[in-house]
Design a protein that fits this description.
Helix content: 25-40%
Strand content: 15-25%
Largest sheet: 7 strands, mixed
Bound molecules: 5-S-methyl-1-O-phosphono-5-thio-D-ribulose
CATH superfamily of the largest domain: Translation initiation factor eif-2b, domain 2
Number of strands: 14
CATH architecture of the largest domain: 3-Layer(aba) Sandwich
CATH topology of the largest domain: Rossmann fold
Structural class: alpha/beta
Radius of gyration: 20 Å
Number of domains: 2
Distance between the termini: 43 Å
Shape: globular
Number of helices: 11
């Protein structure tokens, strides 16, 4: 296996399929599945076979192609109606990662801007765009890694939560890209990975990725993070994000907020690493970010399916929480670091890097 496995990619031409790693089985089994229809892709996103905000953005592109490639529309306007149905359908898979909606919107815009071309040409244009999202994501992750690695100094140890690695992107990752880049630069450092209940993306995916790459990684249960910080073992925190509001508040896997509170208490810099496609400038404040509620059995049974609570006990299972920007030392994007993020700093970063749609 290569250092960074191909999380999701397209096989062949328009009549091909989208191949992705079935992440629910990792690390016990490495298996790939082929999505042939938009329903396959919806299901893969919902079940977390493909997961992590940027990877979901890539899935949105390929899922759109799967949804419209067999459209029997003969006019561009009828095709655009079919496209909208696919976009609406895929939008309903998961609510929090804004990259899903970003990817779908990008596909929709490309089709609408295509002008006077035939339906077969429109289909091909959409496949090209989905492949472009995939290619760009790989490049962006490497840029995130480079900017983030500058924040991790020789001999330091960092904590991460959930999985913001190659498995959460086209490859290489966001928060974990910092560690891959630091390793490539020859730095000596160590990583503590939170287990990340209830679905254990930290133990199943992050420790698997870092361990495979030969990075010094130590797995801890979520409730150990405070003690590990108190013992002076952590100098930096790096996490990914699913949606960043205009004021810099960042949604990420449940438990991230608790880590940020602990980091603040212990005076440890807390960094969010995410591409600009993870920002939602239409959402002013983190309180307005929709938080996915998931199946209670994820807590009663965990990811293995074995009962570890009364089968009918009441459960509250929010999949994400929001870290207020006051707890964030910096947000690393593909363009650099937004230090002490707030509405003004985020806007200035977007403006300076030409990311505002109307400029
Ligand atoms: O529910 P998941 O596994 O999709 O949650 C993923 C996370 O919370 C990641 O930390 C986030 O998407 C950033 S991925 C680069």
């Amino acid at each position: 296996m290569t250092a960074h496995p191909d999380t999701i990619h397209w096989i062949g031409d328009l009549d091909g399929c989208c191949r992705l790693i079935e992440q629910t089985l990792l690390p016990a089994e490495f298996k790939e599945i082929d999505c042939q229809t938009q329903e396959d892709m919806w299901d893969a996103i919902k079940r977390l076979a493909v997961r992590g905000a940027p990877a979901i953005g890539v899935a949105a592109g390929f899922g759109t192609v799967l949804g419209v490639r067999n459209s029997t529309a003969t006019s561009a306007s009828a095709f655009l109606e079919d496209l909208q149905k696919t976009v609406d359908y895929l939008s309903s898979s998961r609510p929090t990662a804004v990259n899903l909606f970003w990817g779908l919107d990008r596909m929709r815009r490309v089709a609408h801007a295509a002008g006077d071309i035939s339906v077969p040409e429109l289909k091909q244009r959409l496949l090209d765009e989905a492949k472009a999202i995939w290619t760009e994501d790989r490049d962006i992750c490497r840029r995130l890694g480079k900017h983030g690695a500058a924040l991790l100094h020789e001999g330091e140890s960092a904590l991460t939560h959930c999985n913001a690695g190659g498995l959460a992107t086209a490859d290489y990752g966001t928060a974990l890209a910092v560690f891959f880049a630091a390793q490539e630069e020859g730095k000596t450092f160590a990583v503590f990975a939170d287990e990340t209940r209830p679905l254990n993306q930290g133990s199943r995916l992050t420790s698997w990725e870092l361990h495979n790459a030969g990075i010094d990684v130590t797995l801890i249960c979520d409730n150990m993070a405070g003690q590990v910080m108190k013992e002076g073992r952590i100098q930096k925190i790096f996490v990914g994000s699913d949606r960043i509001a205009a004021n810099g508040d960042a949604a990420n896997k449940i438990g991230t907020y608790s880590v940020s509170v602990l980091a603040k208490h212990h005076g440890i810099p807390f960094y969010v690493v995410a591409p600009t496609s993870t920002f939602d400038l239409n959402t002013a404040h983190g309180d307005d970010i929709p938080i996915e509620q998931r199946d209670p059995d994820e807590i009663r049974r965990g990811y293995t399916g074995g009962l570890n609570a009364p089968a009918d006990v009441a459960v509250y299972n929010p999949a994400f929480d929001v870290t207020p920007h006051e707890h964030i030392a910096g947000i690393v994007t593909e363009f650099g670091v937004i230090q002490n993020p707030d509405t003004e700093a985020v806007l200035e970063h977007f403006r300076r890097n030409g990311c505002l749609a109307d400029e």
